[in-house]
Amino acid sequence: MSNENAAVPRHRAFSFSRIRTITVNTLTELTRLKVFYVLLVFALLLIGSSMFVAQFTFQQEFQILKDVSLGAMSIFTSLLAIVATARLIPQDIEDRTVYTILAKPVPRFEYLLGKIAGVLLLLAISTAVMGGAFLLVLYMREQAVLHATLRHMSGVPREQVDDALRVIRSSALNIDIFPGIVIIYLKACLLAALTLFVSTFATTNIFTIVVMAFIYFIGHLQATAREYWLAVIS
């Protein structure tokens, strides 16, 4: 009797290997979505913005490029977080994959952890790619402005040229950009977690997307509503 019990493999209550397997499978499934089209649209926005702001001063050009690029990153990562996460559980239920996974047996919290980890990994990759494209375009515009400034100030004393170049560099690539990119990623992670929570009791992924769209817009409009309310009562 003891030999039979010893031969039966013991089920571990928590396993990183199971979570890693679910994470990898989720990431593989999500990469088949239209995420690459999202990145393509973002790249086109970057190229288009650099063309439209060419007529402004370099401070205005860099600021508009940053605003458009970071805004595009925020919108597309948020949409990706909501749409990609909303379809995970309903798709597994429709394909009956969830029943196979939970019958392994895999605890439900490991299943959910693996799912959300796959989404967060996809968001990290997407944010890194879009952030890299943004920094590359900003660097190219910075170099173009630097070369143009050197040509126009060829007969100016060296001290003035150095001051002008320093102002240009401080207006383009600086350390303040990276916290903004991190905040965009963290916001997308929060949206993904909320979407996964809603999808656990939602009947369809359309319902989840609609609910999260309301949450997204309410979160963005609450600052405007507060300012309007303060202006009314003052």
Q: What would your notes on this structure say?
A:
The chain is mainly alpha-helical. The chain has one domain (16-233). It has helices at 2-7, 16-30, 35-52, 58-86, 88-95, 97-102, 108-152, 158-171, 177-199, 205-233. Helix 3 packs antiparallel against helix 4 (58-86) and helix 4 (58-86) packs antiparallel against helix 7. The longest helix is centred in the middle third of the chain and has 45 residues, at 108-152.
Supply the key terms.
0% strand; single chain; 10 helices; mainly alpha; 234 residues; elongated; 82% helix
Strand content: under 5%
Helix content: over 70%
Q: Compute the average pLDDT.
A: 79
| Global shape | elongated
Give the number of DSSP strands. Answer: 0
Poorly predicted regions are none
Helix-strand makeup class: mainly alpha
Write the H/E string, N to C.
HHHHHHHHHH
> Could you tell me the radius of gyration in angstroms?
24 Å
Number of domains: 1
Count the DSSP helices.
10
